[in-house]
């Protein structure tokens, strides 16, 4: 429906926003693969592939995952480890550490590139471990086949919002990160900025770098490589400071970056940008 968000007087349907439904479908597709095989260009293309001047609401997780029939993003990433290793009073596992890190990055890159609005879906903000399933009996289809029900069970008929509020669980850090993302948008209003430019989508480095408004976003999806003095092109010259770090201990990270560090640009053209700066960022795998 190409006229969905065109004003009625111009022959359109007149809605202000369209749901960017291709994004959660892409994450479902990618989560069924090893993240080592993810293509940075493919991710960027899906997030930015929308009509010019058509505003979109983007989201990382949808009913296809959160409702019966699939798994939530968190459960795809961490699976059964979520049942035993999400308490802070016991050691974590590499699967949990990696899953929490990827969950935060998936949400932020979706919010950063995917549209002009961002939607959470039924516990995505803190990484709900399970799907939701309403009580239901068997359903007969016109072709004669029958979809089995769940014996009208209420077992999965709830969202565990208490998990995100529990300060003794790792879900709390994931929820804190979601709040920090919202505060970042509230302060800088990057989602409604006209300036959006992807400067790097490097398949070997597994790096995505883009500008949105006054911010420069840097993502390292590599499973083992950290980068020191990595050159990042930028439109605006001057001094840059870190305003959001997914590795912050508050968000369940390991606090390995200096938040007080200042980064100064140089007149060093890089990847079609007149200015650039050197940054440090870490690999995904702990």
UniProtKB/TrEMBL annotation:
This protein's record includes keyword Membrane: yes
InterPro entries for this protein: A-amylase/branching_C, GH, Glyco_hydro_b
Pfam families with a match to the protein in the record: Alpha-amylase_C
Any GO molecular function: 1,4-alpha-glucan branching enzyme activity
Gene Ontology cellular-component terms listed: cytoplasm
Key words, A-Z: Membrane, Transmembrane, Transmembrane helix
Transmembrane spans: 263-285
Gene Ontology biological process terms in this record: starch metabolic process
Record domain Alpha-amylase/branching enzyme C-terminal all beta: where: 197-265
Protein name per the record: Alpha-amylase/branching enzyme C-terminal all beta domain-containing protein
């Amino acid at each position: 429906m190409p006229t969905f968000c065109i004003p009625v007087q111009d022959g359109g349907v007149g809605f202000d926003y369209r749901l960017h439904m291709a994004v959660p479908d892409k994450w479902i597709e990618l989560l069924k693969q090893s993240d080592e095989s993810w293509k940075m260009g493919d991710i960027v293309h899906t997030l930015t592939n929308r009509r010019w001047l058509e505003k979109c609401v983007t989201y990382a997780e949808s009913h296809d995952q959160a409702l019966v029939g699939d798994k939530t993003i968190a459960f795809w990433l961490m699976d059964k480890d979520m049942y035993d290793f999400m308490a802070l009073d016991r050691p974590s596992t590499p699967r949990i550490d990696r899953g929490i890190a990827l969950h935060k990055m998936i949400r932020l890159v979706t919010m950063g590139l995917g549209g002009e609005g961002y939607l959470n879906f039924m516990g995505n903000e803190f990484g709900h471990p399970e799907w939701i399933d309403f009580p239901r009996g068997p359903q007969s289809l016109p072709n004669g086949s029958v979809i089995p029900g769940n014996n009208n069970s209420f077992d999965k008929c709830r969202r565990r919002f208490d998990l995100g509020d529990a300060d003794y669980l790792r879900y709390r850090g994931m929820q804190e990160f979601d709040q920090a993302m919202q505060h970042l948008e509230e302060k800088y209003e990057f989602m409604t900025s006209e300036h959006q430019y992807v400067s790097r989508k490097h398949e070997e480095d597994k790096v995505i770098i883009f500008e949105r408004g006054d911010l420069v976003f840097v993502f390292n999806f590599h499973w083992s490589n950290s980068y020191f003095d990595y050159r990042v092109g930028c439109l605006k010259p001057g001094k840059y400071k870190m305003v959001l770090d997914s590795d912050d201990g508050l968000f369940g990270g390991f606090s390995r970056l200096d938040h007080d560090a200042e980064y100064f640009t140089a007149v060093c053209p890089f990847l079609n940008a007149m200015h650039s700066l050197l940054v440090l960022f870490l690999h995904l795998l702990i």
